[in-house]
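Hi W.,

Here's what went into the run:
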Amino acid sequence: MNNNAKKTAHEPFLHITKRGDISTAGAWSVRLIAIAVSLLVSAVVVVLLTGYNPVQVFKAMFSGNFGSLSKVRTLFQNIAMLLCISLAVTPAFKMKFWNLGAEGQVLVGGLASAACMFYLKDSLPNILLILIMFVASILSGIIWGLIPAVFKAKWNANETLFTLMMNYVAIQLVSFFIMLWVPSGSSVMGLINASTKAGWLPNLFGQKYLINILIVAVLTVVMYFYLKSSKQGYEIAVVGESSNTAKYIGINVKKVIVRTMTISGGLCGLAGFLLVSGTNHTVTKDLAGGMGFTAVMVSWLAKFNPAVMVLTSFLIVFLQRGAGEIATVCRLNESVSDILTGIIIFFIIGSEFFINYKINFKSKHKEEK
Amino acid sequence: MSEIALELRGITKRFGSVTANKNVNLCAYRGEILSLLGENGSGKTTLMNMISGIYYPDEGKILINGEEVVIKSPRDAFDYKIGMIHQHFKLVDVFSAAENIVLGLEEQGRYNIKNATQRVSQIAEKYGFDIDPEKKIHEMSVSEKQTVEIIKVLYRGADILILDEPTAVLTPQETQKLFNVLRKMKEDGKTIIIITHKLHEVLALSDRVAVLRKGEYIGTVITSQTNESELTEMMVGQKIDLNIKRSEPVNPQKRLEVKNLDCKNRDGVKVLDNISFEAYSGEILGIAGIAGSGQRELLEAIAGLQHIEQGEIIYNDPKTEKSENLKDKTPLQIRSLGVRLSFVPEDRLGMGLVGNMDIVENMLLRSYRKGKSFFLQKKEPKTLAEKIIQQLEVATPSANTPVRRLSGGNVQKVLVGREISSSPTVLMAAYPVRGLDINSSYTIYNLLNEQKEKGVAVIFVGEDLDVLIELCDRILVIGEGRITGVVDGRTAKKEEIGYLMTNSNGGKDNE
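Here's what came out:
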């Protein structure tokens, strides 16, 4: 009858089914298990590479983050900066505008601050200089964000490629100005205004970086309510979910794209300002250091919720710094910390699959033949 | 009706917490047409997808010709000579019919399109299909595309054919043609399973009817021994009055005048050509036509969502007795003119609502701009959401449930509820009962009738001609973007409308 049919019937070894709604607690326990497994796997990798005791490896990870006051300070500073950029890209991503140009927007923001510091020196009162830098950085970030937004709104140009390309333009721009500013022709610029500290954000209560952290904390709260309870935030959500629905109820989609990218670019510019004025006091090509891309992940993992982003950015910075410390302690080069971060992030992202799907194995009693 | 070709025993399939099929037993004989009847969401398609290898059952057995088989993929299904014709066609637009038919086949020898074309013609001749194997898919009508899909399955030697709602996209004439072909296949000894929820088609075509309700198998009856009301009762679980009441229009007044409207789509192709008609208050104006004949563009043009090349849309305000031209106005401008135009679009979750938002947030879509505050006011929409849930009996855990989690009927109640809550003067609804179960469909018909009695000009785009004839006062028929006729709903015949739908030039003498 069925000549060409397979004669023996085999149930597939496993098949995948979509889960119904998983409880929040269930979802978080899957995520926690994923983090635990990822730590275990990274420990195994390090032990295999170095022969160190795994407990030592975890100790290094912890001490890399909380080992000393200056380490804690840097930890929180790093979290604040990553969180700031994550908050910046969130409105764009919530609108399904793939802003991969945060890196460039931060860079031009930082460049603008550095330019103000370099040219104005201490000719103005410090507070005024900082204010000018603040505005200049935000404006530059806005310009960098607006260019792709306008092209998207007017001609539906693909924003993913556009924003990505703008990053390279920004990098070249920074290289150009460093060459212009550093007389020796070196590609590295030293601290700007090192003696006068003009344009440096002051220490608050004697604590370095405290101003950065406070500004980002306020920004987190503002962004939370902007997205959740404001009319503009609602428009962003509607455009992101379905531009057809947005048009149907009379939202001007182009206007929302341009307005949202103004916010996104502007906040990236602010991050650039905080990095130059409040942290590095100089500008380099690596000012954003890949945070523009890591921020995308922070934002996605938090499902675009600014409150959750505090946690996700903490997690990622903690892991990155821990992995860096392991590399130092075990005298391995920096690639190891990249490998470890990669392993950990792989598990975190992979865990989302298990939250959405269930795997059914072949049932036992049918296996007996 | 001798041998059993296909048998299902205790088939169960779950998606998360939803049980799509629960312990279903079913059998189909050689040389018969079996109808699988059930409301939307009763699990018909899921069941058939398990036979054709798209899903894998959680429990139960499938037997082909008396032997237990395991079907893991559509390829396995083909090996067992099972072919399914899906509701959404899976064809390559730029390929010809014959090319599509042989696509993906691993035949012995070299690729020989001539040979294939010949075989396609042979199959077409045998069963009485009307097809040109060399015609490209993108030049074909929906019914032709369906023919290609059916031949594709026959070409692969299928003995069991499953058709998922094949008549949903066809005119009455095309449906008749399809039925004749299916009858010929049956005489040839093929087993045909047709998924449907249209009762009169079941009665006209099939030998036996198997009924599913909420994923459960209810029973199989022999078609010649049953009738519409018995089948409905099996399908719904209770007796239902299938008549739609229709009142006489009271004091009809010209509310909307569309004059010589021309529209082009994004590719610059004319989709509306010289459309002129009037919609009166207190009546339901039906719009009939083959899917994609310009119905969507027409409603969107009126709503301000479609660019108008030429023509006018005049709105007569019942209160101020002023006339406004709505051409070249955005939806927001139309609102600010005081025009109370409500629109239930075809694409509910992609246009009318946001699937990931809850009911309250979906109420906000229409009203969020109210007030000068920078922040949203959620109180009013919350009251409205609760009112709609109560009055229209929306089955939902709460007003804060994302609407995508609701069933089709409840989604539509939320959308229609919101649209009529602004007490409109014109209400446009595109395919408002598509995918709805019988009870929800009748709720929607009643809501439209209520609006009509309140003096609203209702425009109803429908696909089921029986419903259009029962519900509407007048029916506008369009074909290929042109008006091919206007008929009176009380006297029109289905065949007459079907003829007008396919005849896009000669409608003038029918007015």
